[in-house]
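Sample entry (232 residues):
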Amino acid sequence: MASISLFIGTVAPLPDSGRLSGIFKHPVSNPIHLGRGGFDGDQQADLRVHGGPDKAVHLYPAAHYALLAKQFPQAADDLVPGSHAEKISSAGLDEGGVRIGDIFQLGEALLQVCQPRSPCWKIDDRFGVDGIATFIGEQGLTGWYFRVVQPGMVAPDARLDLRESSAGAPTLHAALALLRLHRPDPCELRHLAAAPGIAAGWRQKIDARAAWLEVNDAPPVPPPLFHVKPEE
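Predicted structure, serialized as tokens:
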């Protein structure tokens, strides 16, 4: 069981580019409904890469902020829980302690771990510092997304309680380490893609990489670690 903090927010312009983003969140102080698309009142700007059933709720481990503040001291004052657009912050969970497919209870709702977050260029824009998104991807400090298995009300003092462990499935830490390899073992990729509860889009990318490796000897072009800023 892990204590948590809840955050939601509306779309607002980023300070550097002026592009709209849902990265700015504020603490939740009253019970709030969590539906299959996320918390009531929460918004995302770019629905091509954010939101949807397999990205309904983002959790970011609170302990990562100390590592980020040490690496990027110029942004240390702003690197606080809620500042990475997470809906849930927790000091008691990280990528090494959860498996793909794990089911947690949060208030009346049930949530399933389904994929890591892919860091976005908007993180750098939000903090005014280049390199944060790349560092997060390289170090595997991504946090993860839950899908909502059962909607329900969630109080700000709710706790995340593991209800069903996905025994045999990789931890997110192990999955991210595998995907950062230059030439991962295709069999291990297939095992990862077969994890119960894995997000469909993520599974397709992993299967495609495994298929490529199975028939090609030359090193493939590694996938990007984060969402690249679009051209003006």
